[in-house]
């Protein structure tokens, strides 16, 4: 019989043994498959929406200044008569002026309608070819106070034609809904909302300057060339205005989304898939090691019959390859279900994507299948080589059990690697050195783990001896074979270490951000910031800020706006505020100079960014505003605290004349001496009613609200990491099942001398719990140590405190131990039911 046929027969003969291996590979590859499928689906959906949005537009006329490549941003306005200039160009069939701006819908109950995309308002374009929206109900707007609203918003707000609502542009504008629109076949453009006015209404309410528009959408005569037409149009345009072929404009948006959000999202999911695969690899490796130890006699018999070491290795690797192929195919298909689950999970946590169905590309299979097969083969390689080296005579004389001894060379190598890892961790000052330190520490701990089990395991498990025969027998089994115990705990150890690093880093980041926010805000009341308008954020009218500043008991109210500009030629996100009164609302922790009274010629910069750029107080900075205007600003101050104003701060006097929108993202209210914060907050809430009820909170309430979004993100990560722990528990269950099979004679003798089935079950379940607890405890210790360095290195410019979250870590340890106890339930039950006589007669 050939080695290949023997490998197939072995897999068929040991179905239960194979099932655990297959499950580990399936879970790891399913996560990778699901991550790729979901990211491809999101990319296909979003880019499809973008292409649909520009499908009928042959040429786009817009402001030539580009200050950011962030998707979804609007360029500065252009002259309102630009459309008339374009209409006179030969080959132009239609040229429609387009106004696009901020437009937050407020429902009939007075609260903002939420969403996961921009809040868009503009003019309803009459040419169907140039308007991606189509009327589903009602009619187009005819007067300035009539609007068309996307169907998703009407369903959320229970709106219908004839309803009277408010649109914040950002000032409140009472309007009547006269039509319901759809974006192609979708109810909305992704998670965004859309409010369509007449052109007159959009110029009056949405445009910052009634004499300017956002762009011109051009439809050409049939058969006209886009590039040639764009060049002809460009010749009639004033300076600072650009004509771009519609296909180029669409591709520009697609590239911005692909290179930005979609790339980050794919990398984010792939990182967790890699973690799951690594944990699966350790689980597979240990299972193969146990299987190899149990099959020494079989290998020896094959050697005695003439099989070479190479053939023995080939048989083991062939079995691994077959398992890898089958499991990877199953995992690839299971990824479809996992992708659907991930999509639902993100939606449940407020990260809904504009996704219908799932996209399965051939490239996904070309990635998942080789990765799954290679990981499985590599995981089996060392056990296969070890099994082929056992002398036939020695293997025939042994019981085929794995040696309980701990090779001194292994322990010495582990000690050296652990010491090197600790040293590198202490010295780490960048991500790459930290990664090398983590790998060295991980490898070292894995090598010395059997010694740790023997030294620490007895102490940890000693108190449980008094609980009965089950815990006592389990303790003996764990300590008798420390290499096997350490191997079984490896996957749990790695998984818990990764989760611990993230938990500690997240707790440190949250604690540091919360503390800095409290130190930065010296005002007593905060309006906005944690907008109910969804993850896309929101804002409120500067008029609300002005009215809040006039309330009794208020010393000043400082509103902050956010936008993009070019600083010395590089795109930066900046914050603009009324800096003449900034010190009453914020304490930025100045290093030098001042951030107050910046006027039209000053800029304040965070200390790390100033150091990177070589700026000091008095340094000149060239700024290009969104409308193309240029100026030279002087660095007036350098500060440390960035949680509220970011890295670049200028005055509203400098920003407002050039801004695309006029929306305050946040307002900090400082009280007069002796004023009641509760009374001012109540008064501010009454004023905020007409502006869609943005949140009005005291300082501590604002900090808690802003950290709530961090908590949501952290929860998502915990859910993703839970799969790695599930794989680890599966490895423990599989190892326990194999160990029970190996110890049939021992278990049979226990039953023969009077042990009850319940005692046998208890001993194996406790053994599983011990293994999980040892793995979890070791992972917690290593993870806590590595996270100490991670907090320092990954926090970058922001110094963070090192915070150990005791509750999360206790829950993590308890969950790992309890999971181990549950994982051992089925193998223990099966072992307790074995026939006593058959077990005693087993070799």
From TrEMBL:
Record membrane topology: Multi-pass membrane protein
The entry's keywords: Cell membrane, Membrane, Transmembrane, Transmembrane helix
Family matches, as Pfam families: FtsX
Residue ranges that the Swiss-Prot or TrEMBL entry lists as coiled coil: none
Keyword Membrane: yes
Keyword DNA repair among record annotations: no
Subcellular location: Cell membrane
Source organism superkingdom: Bacteria
Xref: InterPro entries: ABC3_permease_C (IPR003838), Macrolide_Exporter_MacB (IPR050250)
Domain ABC3 transporter permease C-terminal: 271-392, 719-836
Transmembrane segments: 18-38, 268-288, 320-353, 365-385, 406-428, 434-464, 485-509, 716-740, 769-791, 803-824
Family according to the record: Belongs to the ABC-4 integral membrane protein family.
Name this protein carries in UniProt: FtsX-like permease family protein
Lineage summary: Bacteria, Bacillati, Actinomycetota, Actinomycetes, Kitasatosporales
């Amino acid at each position: 019989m050939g080695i290949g046929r023997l490998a197939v027969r072995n897999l068929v003969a040991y179905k239960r043994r194979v099932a655990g291996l297959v499950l580990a590979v399936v879970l790891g590859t399913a996560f990778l498959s699901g991550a790729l499928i979901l990211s491809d689906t999101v990319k296909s959906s979003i880019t499809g929406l973008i292409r649909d949005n520009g499908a009928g537009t042959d040429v786009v006329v817009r402001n030539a200044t580009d200050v950011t490549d962030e998707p979804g941003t609007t360029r500065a306005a252009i002259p309102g008569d630009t459309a008339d200039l374009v209409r006179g160009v030969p080959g132009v069939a239609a040229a429609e002026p387009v106004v696009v701006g901020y437009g937050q819908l407020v429902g009939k109950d007075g609260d903002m309608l939420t969403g996961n995309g921009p809040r868009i308002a503009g003019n309803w374009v009459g040419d169907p070819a140039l308007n991606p929206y189509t009327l589903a109900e009602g009619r187009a707007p005819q007067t300035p106070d009539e609007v068309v609203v996307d169907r998703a918003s009407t369903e959320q707000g229970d709106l219908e034609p004839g309803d009277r609502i408010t649109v914040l542009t950002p000032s409140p504008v009472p309007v009547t809904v006269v039509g319901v629109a759809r974006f192609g076949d979708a109810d909305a453009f992704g998670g965004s909302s859309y409010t369509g006015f007449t052109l007159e209404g959009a110029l009056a309410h949405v445009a910052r300057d009634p004499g300017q528009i956002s762009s011109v959408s051009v439809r050409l005569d049939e058969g006209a060339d886009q590039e040639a037409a764009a060049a002809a149009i460009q010749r009639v345009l004033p300076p600072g205005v650009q004509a771009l072929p519609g296909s180029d404009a669409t591709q520009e948006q697609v590239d911005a989304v692909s290179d930005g959000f979609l790339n980050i999202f794919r990398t984010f999911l792939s990182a967790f898939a890699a973690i799951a695969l690594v944990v699966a690899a350790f689980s597979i490796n240990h299972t193969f090691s146990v299987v190899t130890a149990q099959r020494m006699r079989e290998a020896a018999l094959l050697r005695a019959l003439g099989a070479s070491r190479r053939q023995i290795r080939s048989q083991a690797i062939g079995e691994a390859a077959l398992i890898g192929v089958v499991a990877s195919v199953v995992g690839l298909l299971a990824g479809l279900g996992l992708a659907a689950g991930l999509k639902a999970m993100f939606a449940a946590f407020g990260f809904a994507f504009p996704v219908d169905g799932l996209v399965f590309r051939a490239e996904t299979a070309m990635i998942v299948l080789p990765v799954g097969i290679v990981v499985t083969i590599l995981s089996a390689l060392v056990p296969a080589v070890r099994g082929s080296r056992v002398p036939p005579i020695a293997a025939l004389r042994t019981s085929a059990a794995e040696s309980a001894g701990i090779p001194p060379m292994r322990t010495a190598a582990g000690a050296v690697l652990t010491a090197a890892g600790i040293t590198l961790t202490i010295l780490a000052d960048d991500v790459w050195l930290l990664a090398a330190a983590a790998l060295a520490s991980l490898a070292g701990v894995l090598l010395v783990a059997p010694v740790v089990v023997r030294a620490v395991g007895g102490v940890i498990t000693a108190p449980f001896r008094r609980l009965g025969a089950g815990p006592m027998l389990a303790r003996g089994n764990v300590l008798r074979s420390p290499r096997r115990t350490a191997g079984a705990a490896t996957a749990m150890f790695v998984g818990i270490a990764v989760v611990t690093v993230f938990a500690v880093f997240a707790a440190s980041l949250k604690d540091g951000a919360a503390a800095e926010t409290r130190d930065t805000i010296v005002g007593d009341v905060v309006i906005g910031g944690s907008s109910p308008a969804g993850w896309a954020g929101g804002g409120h009218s500067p008029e609300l800020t002005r009215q809040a500043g006039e309330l009794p008991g208020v010393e000043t109210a400082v509103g902050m706006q956010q936008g993009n500009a070019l600083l010395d030629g590089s795109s930066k996100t900046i914050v603009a505020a009324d800096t003449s009164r900034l010190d009453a609302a914020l304490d930025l922790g100045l290093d030098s100079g001042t951030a107050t009274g910046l006027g039209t010629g000053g800029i304040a910069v965070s200390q790390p960014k100033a150091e990177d750029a070589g700026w000091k107080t008095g340094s000149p900075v060239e700024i290009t505003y969104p409308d193309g205007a240029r100026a030279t600003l002087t660095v007036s101050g350098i500060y440390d605290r960035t949680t509220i104003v970011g890295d670049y701060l200028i005055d509203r006097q400098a920003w407002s004349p050039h801004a695309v929108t006029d929306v305050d993202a946040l307002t900090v209210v400082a009280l007069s001496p002796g004023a009641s914060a509760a009374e001012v907050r109540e008064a501010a809430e009454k004023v905020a009613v007409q502006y869609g009820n943005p949140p009005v909170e005291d300082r501590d309430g604002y900090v808690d609200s802003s950290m709530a979004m961090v908590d949501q993100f952290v929860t998502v990560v915990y859910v993703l990491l839970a799969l790695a722990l599930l794989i680890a528990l599966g490895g423990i269950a599989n190892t326990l099942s194999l160990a029970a099979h190996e110890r049939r004679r021992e278990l049979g003798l226990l039953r023969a001398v009077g042990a009850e089935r319940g005692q046998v079950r208890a001993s194996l379940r406790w053994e599983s719990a011990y293994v999980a607890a040892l793995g979890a405890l070791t992972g917690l210790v290593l993870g806590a140590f590595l996270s100490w360095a991670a907090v320092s290195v990954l926090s970058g410019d922001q110094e963070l405190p090192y915070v150990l979250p005791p509750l999360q870590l206790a829950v993590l340890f308890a969950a790992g131990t309890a999971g181990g106890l549950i994982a051992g339930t089925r193998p223990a039950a099966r072992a307790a039911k074995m026939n006593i006589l058959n077990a005693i007669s087993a070799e």
